[in-house]
Amino acid sequence: MSGRDMIGIAKTGSGKTLAFLLPMFRHIADQPELESDDGPIAIIMTPTRELAMQIGKECRKFSKSLNLRCVCVYGGTGISEQIAELKRGAEIIVCTPGRMIDMLAANSGKVTNLRRCTYIVLDEADRMFDMGFEPQVMKIVDNVRPDRLTVMFSATFPRQMEALARRVLTKPIEVTVGGRSVVCADVEQFIIVLEDTQKFLKLLEILGLYQERGSCLVFVHKQEHADELMKNLLKHGYPCMSLHGGIDQYDRDSTMEDFKAGNIKLLIATSVCSRGLDVKDLVLVVNYDCPNHYEDYVHRCGRTGRAGNHGYAYTFVSHDQGRHAGDLIKALELSKTPVPEELKVLWQKFKDEMEADGKKISSYSGFHGKGFKFDETEAELANDRKKLQKAALGLQDSDDEDAGLDIEQKIERMFASRKRVCDVNQSLTSLPSASNINNVQSQSNLEKLELAKKAASQINILKNTTAEPLDVNQQAAAAILKGGVAVTHVSSKTIAEQMAEKINAKLGYRPMTEEEKEAELGILPANQVAEPTKRYEEELEINDFPQTARWKVTSREALSQISEFSDAGITVRGIYIPPNKDPKEGERKLYLGIEATSEIAVQKAKAEITRLIKEELVRLQNSYQPISKNRYKVL
Ligand SMILES: Nc1ncnc2c1ncn2[C@@H]1O[C@H](COP(=O)(O)OP(=O)(O)OP(=O)(O)O)[C@@H](O)[C@H]1O
């Protein structure tokens, strides 16, 4: 309420939605009214479409009487109605980040814009900052005025995620109500260790106990399992539906509506339903497949025991899932629930097995490798590569939240970056490996200037004859995101100057300033001449990223855009070496060389390269649709 940025952490079902809606209404009431063509004053971002719908519904309960308009913008459904609604104007947009970006770019920015946006909510903030959403969230947040109010809410907030989140907050206050990342005390937890073959019968037994008392939600790990289990339950006389990312959005919406209205009492879902969903009278959660990380367990269990009601959460762990036992023990201990002996035994067994393999177990989940063939760093690197390649091939479940944690760090590690700083003048003779400068080493500065000018003018001619729409489009998109008008005009002279600057950077040549020229002509005293500048270089290995990610950062357009944006020269060097092959003598794996006259320029270029690779990895993973949508239609 006081206008500070904040991180709010409170247990599931405690009413966090209202905690950000009420101050938001007050904030909007203090702003001047929207004029035609104004975008929203408040944006609420959520990780799932169902959650966006739910928050939109909650918001409208209040906004109607306050004469405010709230529009839900989320993917998977027709874009035209959402565009029409936005064009009529809305003070509040509840959205999933991907579709919001589509809207901002739609119709050259005439649909909506961020000019008036001063209040941003990131609900389920920790989820919003993992691999799936961070690039999109940052794209939006970075284009909202810096003096905005930003608030983040979640029931869980791992420390490593918090550091990332704080990048978009200004001196935030952190409000924690009750525990941080703890299962709500109103949820009674049961862990059952059993064989896979016993799971279905156990589920029938549990449903027999609870089905009469209210709605039940069963979580499975994969989309196929959800459909399979639904069929089996239908066969056994339990009317139910399934809900997951592979189902058409219209069917997802209607299933969710039916489940919330109590028309369907039993829902089989993947973790797409684990966060934020609020279903009245949901009395039972069954983790038919054990969640594969701690936060997911907390959120899944939190679908029951909401708003002061009592709920029950059962979790099945099979004997070969000892690796998850640590997280479950942690969850039980933190919520002061006795840990079953069988679970302790399972965990101990897993730890013993790992230790026998030479792997050290940390207190709960995860282990630190002590491989036989690799040293620790190599093992980690190999593992990261495997994961990224898996992601690129779409081999992970699309609802697997674990997939992208700390992806930037992994990319950074794969870059195996090498840095160098050198004096410009020295560098001309001491850095023969630095790309195109070999043939100009012995030339004088004046000759180099002439060379740069000629090359720039040739490129300029080429630019004018083969226009590059991408450059212009990108500028337009940036302008639209900022709420401006998409006008881009770059004169030939400017292009020539920019190209000359870039070539100068590559050559390691710094043109003389007016003062220096005058000094050389004897007009200024020599002691007023500026000190020689330094050149900063960094090499980033890109050989082992998936092919499309490599293409993305080596294309001519991408390189010229990054150069333009960062003021650094970038060259593609080395050759591509396939996996499991070593470079021959004198060869180097494919890498990018960045050179600039300031460290900031190098960092800007590197950040952009990282962003492009990350975006591509996310795209590859999200575009994986293994199963035909039609299979999931429930008639
Ligand atoms: N002051 C209140 N008194 C009674 N019920 C409330 C109050 N505030 C919120 N609720 C109800 O509590 C339920 C849970 O609220 P909400 O969905 O905001 O929880 P949450 O903290 O966001 O949970 P999650 O972490 O799962 O997203 C909703 O049904 C809401 O209507």
Automatic annotation (TrEMBL):
Q: Which PROSITE patterns does the record match to this protein?
A: DEAD_ATP_HELICASE, HELICASE_ATP_BIND_1, HELICASE_CTER
Q: Which organism is it from?
A: Helobdella robusta
State the superkingdom. Answer: Eukaryota
Q: Which Pfam families match?
A: DEAD (PF00270), Helicase_C (PF00271), KH_12 (PF23469)
Q: What's this chain's function?
A: Component of the 17S U2 SnRNP complex of the spliceosome, a large ribonucleoprotein complex that removes introns from transcribed pre-mRNAs. The 17S U2 SnRNP complex (1) directly participates in early spliceosome assembly and (2) mediates recognition of the intron branch site during pre-mRNA splicing by promoting the selection of the pre-mRNA branch-site adenosine, the nucleophile for the first step of splicing. Within the 17S U2 SnRNP complex, DDX46 plays essential roles during assembly of pre-spliceosome and proofreading of the branch site.
Q: GO cellular component annotations, sorted alphabetically?
A: nuclear speck; nucleus; spliceosomal complex
Q: Which GO terms describe its biological process?
A: mRNA splicing, via spliceosome
Q: Which UniProt keywords apply?
A: ATP-binding, Coiled coil, Helicase, Hydrolase, mRNA processing, mRNA splicing, Nucleotide-binding, Nucleus, Spliceosome
MF (Gene Ontology): ATP binding; hydrolase activity; nucleic acid binding; RNA helicase activity
Annotated family: Belongs to the DEAD box helicase family. DDX46/PRP5 subfamily.
Write out the catalysed reaction.
ATP + H2O = ADP + phosphate + H(+)
Annotated ranges, domain Helicase C-terminal: 186-347
- Where does this protein reside within or beyond the cell? Nucleus speckle
- Give start and end of each Helicase ATP-binding domain: 1-175
UniProt KW Hydrolase keyword: yes
Q: What is this protein called?
A: Probable ATP-dependent RNA helicase DDX46
Decide whether keyword Transferase is in the record.
Answer: no
Which ranges does the record mark as transmembrane? Answer: none
Q: Which InterPro entries match?
A: DEAD/DEAH_box_helicase_dom (IPR011545), Helicase_ATP-bd (IPR014001), Helicase_C-like (IPR001650), P-loop_NTPase (IPR027417), PRP5/DDX46/KHDC4_KH (IPR056149), RNA-helicase_DEAD-box_CS (IPR000629)
What does the record give as EC number? 3.6.4.13
What CDD domains does the database record attribute to this sequence? KH-I_DDX46, SF2_C_DEAD
